[in-house]
Amino acid sequence: MRSRPRAADGGRTPPGGVAPIERAFDALRFGADRTLNLRDDLPTAEQATRRAEAWLRQKQAEGVREVLVVTGRGLGSLDGVGRVREAVRRHLTTLKRFNIVESVADHTPGSCVVTLLPFRAVVEAPRLRKGARTRPPVAIPDQLAALAPATLDALHALALVAIERLGVRSPSDTMLADEMLAQFAALASALEPTVSDRDAALRAMAERMRWELLED
Known about the structure:
The protein is of the alpha+beta class.
């Protein structure tokens, strides 16, 4: 009986890589659609975190619950410190606060399995009331009339915070309406085209942006 040919490395894991058998199991478990490979493109830490967040938000909106994020171990960096890996892992912790990530588990030294919360967790998240006044919108621009009331509330709250950061404590209805339009335009342009519920995704982004402005 002839023996099966062996890999050049004898089947061992290549330095800084993943054994072929492990890659095969990952392909069966996650597939290309549920795997984000940040290692091969060699992004900066900032690029990697932005790409990871956008991709995870998209997968959450698609109803995916478990994904694989490959960052690499950073063995090729000057000091052997995986900056991309560390930046992405820190950002995954941040995304737990925005009801996107449920949990993160180490998979290999250069990858992790991320469990996403159902998309309704973003939509049904409690209102963020830290440091900002809330009142119903009084002058809804015609361009936004088709949005859900909860999304209008989120845009209105975001507009209030943005204007207050400019030192304006009692903005006019016209100023609020203009700011809501400006925020809507900025957020809508950042939406992934494949997101099915764009209204809910826009609402989640508005609430997250308000968080960031309040904490800045």
